[in-house]
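Predict structure. Chain length: 178.
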Amino acid sequence: MEDQEFKFLSDGSDGKVVPSPENPMPPKEEKDNGPKHRTTNIEDILVKMQDQTSSVADISRMITIEMTIALKELVLLGNSDPTFISQRRSLNDEIKMLRELQKSLTESDILSKKDILNIDGEKFQFMFIELLNLYGRALKESGLDRTTIDSVMKQFSDLVKTNDERLRREVARIGVGQ
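Prediction complete.
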């Protein structure tokens, strides 16, 4: 049999195209595999998170944009076509991870701004000793004699020791419930 050309014919009744002698092969139908792999801004978010000068609001906005883009793709996939189940799961997981990242970022920001006073910590101890030294110097520069200065410093030290527990309790209560 010689090579014959077929032409596509359609009777229009069922919408199908059938080969004809002029065109033997029907056109290939391209399968829709859903949205193509998109580029993300995760790297940019990571860079911003590592930069101490970046604001939490800017980083949070970038994360929100990423979630919105993933959500848009999820909506475009729809729920009816079972061939996109893995893509929907992947997008759902991405949205969940981004939400957790944003939550973690917010919690870290809150903690970084929390006013914590560690009375037993090195920084507080250093500051307290420096303030005591300045207080002693102020007493000396005011013209008091050494015996009076020593007496005032001893009295102050005794007051700090007897009020230690009360001061700790009150410091712990500051900011609670705000």
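Summary: Residues 6-10 have pLDDT under 50 and may be disordered.
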